[in-house]
Amino acid sequence: MTSAIGISPSVSLLQGEAVVRGACPHDCPDTCALLTTVRDGIAIKVSGNPDHQPTDGVLCNKVSKYTERTYSPDRLLQPLRRAGPKGSGRYEPVSWDDALEDIAARLAAIAARDPEAIVPYSYAGTMGLVQGESIAARFFNRLGASMLDRTICSSAGGEGLAQTLGGKVGMKVEFFAEAKLILIWGSNSIASNLHFWRLAQAAKRNGAKLVCIDPRRSETAEKCHEHVQLRPGTDAALALAMMHELVVNDWLDHDYIARHTTGWEGLRERALRWTPERAAAVCGIDAAQIRSLARDWGTTRPAAIRVNYGMQRVRGGGNAVRAVACLPALTGAWRDRAGGVLLSSSGTFPVDRAALQRPDLLAGRAPRTINMITIGDDVLRDASPEFGPRIEALVVYNSNPVAVAPESSKVVAGFAREDLFTVVLEHFRTDTADYADYILPATTQLEHWDVHLAYGHTDVLLNRPAIAPVGQARSNTQVFRDLARHMGFTDECFSETDESLCRKAYGTRIDFDELLARGFASLPVADAPFANGGFPTASGKCEFFSEALARQGMDGLPDHVPNYELAGSSPRFPLAMISPPARNFLNSTFVNVQSLRDIEGEPVLEIHAQDAMARGITTGMEVRVFNDRGEYRCKAEVSPRARPGVVNGLGIWWRKFGLNGTNVNELTSQKLTDMGRGPVFYDCLVEVQAA
Ligand SMILES: Nc1nc2c(c(=O)[nH]1)N[C@H]1C(S)=C(S)[C@@H](COP(=O)(O)OP(=O)(O)OC[C@H]3O[C@@H](n4cnc5c(=O)[nH]c(N)nc54)[C@H](O)[C@@H]3O)O[C@H]1N2
Ligand SMILES: Nc1nc2c(c(=O)[nH]1)N[C@H]1C(S)=C(S)[C@@H](COP(=O)(O)OP(=O)(O)OC[C@H]3O[C@@H](n4cnc5c(=O)[nH]c(N)nc54)[C@H](O)[C@@H]3O)O[C@H]1N2
Ligand code: SF4
Ligand SMILES: [Mo]
Hints:
Layout: E1 17-23, E2 33-39, E3 42-48, H1 66-70, E4 80-82, E5 91-93, H2 96-113, E6 118-122, H3 135-143, E7 147-149, H4 155-162, E8 181-185, H5 189-192, H6 194-205, E9 209-213, E10 226-228, H7 235-248, H8 254-260, E11 261-262, H9 264-272, H10 276-283, H11 287-299, E12 303-307, H12 317-331, E13 340-342, H13 353-357, E14 369-371, H14 375-380, E15 393-397, H15 401-404, H16 408-415, E16 421-426, E17 438-441, E18 450-452, E19 459-463, H17 476-487, H18 498-506, H19 512-518, E20 520-522, E21 542-543, H20 547-551, E22 575-578, H21 594-600, E23 604-607, H22 609-614, E24 622-627, E25 630-638, E26 646-649, E27 685-690
Parallel strand pairs: 6-15, 7-14, 8-9, 8-12, 9-10, 11-21, 12-13, 15-16, 16-17, 22-26, 23-25
Antiparallel strand pairs: 1-2, 2-3, 4-5, 4-17, 18-19, 19-20, 22-27, 23-26, 24-25, 24-27
Helix pairs in contact: 2-17, 4-12, 7-9, 7-10, 7-11, 7-12, 10-11
This protein binds ligand MGD (2 copies), iron/sulfur cluster (SF4) and molybdenum atom.
Molybdenum atom is lined by residues 27, 153.
């Protein structure tokens, strides 16, 4: 018997096979609709739902292996308590009740002194709205714990977009297939946005030109018609020089500019200062290539830009996104449904976060905010009037900060503090779990309810549990409900079920019955949302000039902001390092899945032949990559994927699988971007030597 009704089968009742509808939880723009085949209570296959258009029946290599991850022999199956020094990896099993009681007692004792000494640390291990910040947020709000600024990925670009277009909004992804020109800007789509790449391929078959703008000759760059291989952190200079060409050749839509933009005179003046020659010197490319790119952009319709987050992980990341986001308004590209720009669609989703997170539980308190990027410094910081109390407890869920946060040596030193109380909710013994006082086994997406938004399309997805929790695993929501009970929090909101939370996320703005029946529901979004302006900014226009930025004392117009660690500025560390994702990992998730790690092999550093030769480095050689923050060892790959002067350290390996127990984040810095308080992972100078 096979059914696709999507009803979550209860293990005892299940006879034969069922197919359960779900959603991929990972931090990926594609948010695929999953179909899990369950036989006798065991998930035997996970595939893409062919009825869901953005998924189109296809999953990436990582998630098509989901059962391997779910049933991995390394999966955490019971609560563990530390039984040796921090970081020693020695743990003993403990019952849920004992663990919860002790954790609650320890947190209560700290909270009695100062609840802000407790810090939640979470990100997008699951992007689910329920297993992310629902009961967890209620718990920390009720406690009065420190707030966490969840900035580690997209906040610089998000802020750049908000100050230009008004939010994380853009063109509808499906119409990229109809474009005649697509700029893939700061995105290795084949690796990190596969379902967009399929649309770009369709456009290519229809005669579209594809251009990739990326310092790395990525898998995507090599399949585009043209590759603009600029230096990291120079995208705003390139965009401004394109504007220069649009102005001097009058490839402008004057009517669109007059009606639907602000600050044109100022932007025009600034662009005129960015000749292609000036930008070429900054970007490290030919002026002729900039001219031809501008000509393509100025003279092709429909023309579309897929920006992704690569360009905003540098000091000037917010400005870079602003500059690029101005380009469609200049040429009126928004008039076509296959024209405009897309960075993230997540701002389109009408999520009722207050209903999920209950900020009212703060009851008038305004706890301090810790930026997740500077956790390395902050966990080592003493109490002070500016900082507040020393961090005494960390509760980590949906994240692996010891591997993913910058300047790991400090993160590790902080997490190793014997006087820090750390609880980690996880599927596996990650680098972070190794420093926990308690490790609590979490359910995976196949085992719990959730509801999703997406940042690469505009459909809401529902995830139903397909199997019972593996071992003694509990969902994040259940753990925070349990902890609330042990802390004596009697508020009714701590007994709300996951299914009720799923309904609450969108309230009446989504037909929940449709979600239950199909597994997904599309938001009503206009085909060409900004054809007649109507941007969600204060002015309703595309803001070339942002009053809001000017009021904060910042430049109201986009500009090129050079990297903190500018290539060529340091004789000791002459190479710029970027650390984009490896194709078969998702951030640090999947690194422990053997079949995927086998494909990635070992941690590598791609280096251009010229830079390799100057250092006597050949492919396969173990190298030391270092700067004043630390040292990372990996294997060199002399490769045309690297441009001269730039090395690519693909991420994000677990430290424990690294050659010397570190990963690329040993080298990255905790500095913040121009806007959005974001990370500067790709603004990092290093030197490389044979080990
Ligand atoms: N397979 C896989 N998929 C993923 C992820 C993963 O780890 N693995 N991560 C997920 C997450 S969390 C996110 S945020 C998204 C990220 O999605 P994207 O932003 O598309 O991420 P990347 O594939 O890292 O693309 C970044 C590209 O930007 C390039 N780049 C680096 N610096 C610059 C620069 O200064 N300018 C320009 N123009 N390009 C630059 C890099 O070389 C890389 O090819 O992907 C998601 N999808
Ligand atoms: N050098 C460098 N560093 C980077 C980046 C880079 O490009 N270069 N990229 C940055 C970016 S874009 C991002 S988004 C961050 C990502 O940083 P994180 O959000 O920390 O992402 P992951 O490394 O994937 O870790 C997520 C963890 O959550 C766990 N998890 C998944 N689902 C659940 C669940 O339901 N419950 C619980 N309790 N746990 C769960 C997974 O097992 C996994 O260990 O890394 C950043 N770090
Ligand atoms: S990681 Fe991305 S491409 Fe892979 S299944 Fe999930 S949403 Fe789809
Ligand atoms: Mo991210």
